[in-house]
What we know:
Layout: H1 3-9, H2 23-30, H3 34-46, E1 50-52, E2 59-61, H4 63-75, H5 79-93, E3 96-103, E4 106-113, E5 130-131, H6 136-144, H7 147-155, H8 169-182, E6 185-188, E7 195-203, E8 209-218, H9 224-244
Helix pairs in contact: 1-3, 2-3, 5-9, 6-8
Amino acid sequence: MGTISKALEMLNCFSRKRPEIGLSEFVRLTGRDKATVHRHLVELEQNGFLEQHPVTRAYRLGPAILRLTGVREATNPVRSILRPVVTGLAQETGELAHASLLQGQMLSPVFHFDPQMHGIKVNFDEAELLPLHATSSGLAVLAFAEERLRKEVLAANLDAFTPNTIVDPEKLTPLIASARRTGLSHLDRTYDEEVTSQGAPVFGAAGEVIGALSVAVPSVRAQPDRLSEISVALATAARSATRSLGGTYPDLPLPGQTDPSRFS
Length: 264
């Protein structure tokens, strides 16, 4: 990893739960020596990517992030386009829905919405990059990604996030193949021990997969008939998202009355 990558990677340490980070905590999070971390922090601050709290001296995201976010959304709008699709999907299913875009070998969340219809909810952090092998969104992307990306992901040392995370390429391969046939992926408690999710790919103008939509359900509510209903809404929303982004969707049939045994 080059110097620039090491510095920029530090920005991924921030989240809603961790909006400010001090020097010592950055050292712990990155596993790098204090002098190197301090140098990177100074450079990021000088370029506006970070700023220091005037009292605590802890670092937080800086004004350059806001400026570049505004430029990106104005010139290549994604969040504003996906917001109504994700919100509508969440309201129709009564569950948390989210959209994410492919970023290297991970997925970067763009927008999520929880209709707050149930006491038991799914916790979702938009600052958290999503692994391709352990999430339904990731499998949906891998199913339609270039062969090179699939091979790189499956050849890597895959992390196990829960006891149910599938890290064996031979077991992941048929799941990816199934997602390619149907346009839908399904994983049960592989990224969060209490969450079952379904994913569907989203495509760009050239027909390339650029991200995914997903609906996440607390496993206690993940009954086969419920998941079957969600799959129809999800597949429809993925096509709507693709069209709204100027993309082209593959010729895949919409799920009708999905066989409940598929989710058992």
